[in-house]
Design brief:
This protein is an alpha+beta fold and 329 residues long. It is built from 11 helices and 11 strands. It has a 5-stranded antiparallel sheet, sandwiched between helices. A hairpin with a 2-residue loop joins strand 5 and strand 6. Helix 4 packs antiparallel against helix 6. The radius of gyration is 28 Å and the shape is elongated.
Length: 329
């Protein structure tokens, strides 16, 4: 609608200052001619907006002009308050700022939209952490944020999974990503994208050198490439298991990230027996040890090497308790 487009132009100019007409046209998906007609309409309605021609020209508002109109619809208002429930702002130290911003937004909302926005904050809760994920390691994102926003290189002392000693890297950060409650630093190392879990960063130092990102690559681009690399990584071990129905719900929650095929015959009216079959994909054989938490409620059918791994793990635990018992006797 034209009214929505006019409001979008007004808010963009108020936020950005001078903006070239072709950029406005691209963002609003209209022609440059339409943008100039919209500018005339804004000017005719009393908005002090003007255009300057030339190489460094553009469209901007008269210096000092501000509007308090938010233009938020009911759905947009709800979306903002759901965003506030996600909790990522807490790790970034922005709790107080977000609360203050939302109070200002609430005051600026059209009166009919305020009850819906207030109800959303009470009726919708987004918890990004996984079930029984255990206590999260404390993460200090301050230095990582400083490097990201200052466009500076970082020197990290970073401990990889399965290694005791940290290694040193000099990286070019794109930004921070929170996925399922875990923070990651997305950065280039020697011109190649890398993921660093923030809770494995032992020390971080912001360098004086400016960041050296690949031309035209933004955080979303680098993250998408890394995400695909992780999700499409070949070489997984296919594991077939049987699960007792009385532990199926718990199994599905805890093993969701490894499931490649939903259990066969897990419907309420399928008339099946006490067991259902599921398929998992594990990175290495050792990951199968997590199945021991289900005791005799999960049985590995294949492959043989996974069954053998669980037998070895169970034997080592049994031996440990036997030694402890002998010592107490």
């Amino acid at each position: 609608m034209k009214s929505d487009r006019l409001l979008s132009i007004l808010l963009l100019l108020q936020t950005r200052g001078r903006v070239p007409a072709p950029e406005l046209a691209e963002r609003l998906e209209v022609s440059v001619r339409t943008i100039y007609r919209d500018i005339e309409a804004l000017s005719a309605s009393g908005v002090p907006v003007y255009a300057e021609r030339g190489r460094h020209g553009g469209i901007e508002l008269l210096a000092g002009f501000r509007t308090d109109v938010t233009g938020l619809t009911a759905d947009e208002s709800r979306a903002l308050f759901i965003l506030a429930a996600q909790g990522a702002h807490a790790a970034l130290g922005l709790d107080a700022a977000l609360g203050s911003a939302l109070r200002k937004v609430m005051a600026a909302l059209p009166a009919p939209h305020r009850p819906a926005a207030e109800a959303t904050s009470r009726r919708v809760l987004v918890d990004a952490t996984r079930w029984k994920g255990g206590p999260q390691a404390s993460v200090d994102l301050d230095v990582l944020q400083d490097a990201v926003f200052a466009d500076r290189r970082l020197r990290l002392r970073y401990r990889h999974s399965g290694q005791r000693e940290p290694r040193t890297y000099t990286v070019d950060p794109y930004g921070l990503v929170s996925k399922a409650g875990v923070w990651y630093l997305v950065a280039d190392r020697r011109g190649r994208p890398r993921l660093f879990r923030a809770d494995r960063v032992r020390t971080a130092t912001v360098l004086d050198d400016p960041v050296r990102r690949r031309p035209g690559v933004e955080l979303a681009d680098a993250w998408e490439a890394l995400r695909r690399e992780v999700e499409e990584r070949p070489g997984g071990i296919d594991v077939v298991v049987r699960v007792r129905r009385d532990r199926l719900d718990l199994f599905l929650r805890l093993m969701a990230s490894s499931l490649t095929e939903l259990p066969e015959g897990d419907g309420e009216d399928d008339g099946g027996g006490d067991w259902v079959t599921a398929r998992l994909s594990l990175g290495v054989v050792g990951e199968a040890r997590q199945l021991l938490q289900f005791s005799d409620r999960v049985e590995v059918l294949s492959p043989p090497e996974v069954r053998e791994e669980l037998l070895r793990a169970a034997a080592s635990v049994t031996g440990l308790y036997q030694r402890v018992g002998d010592g107490l006797a």
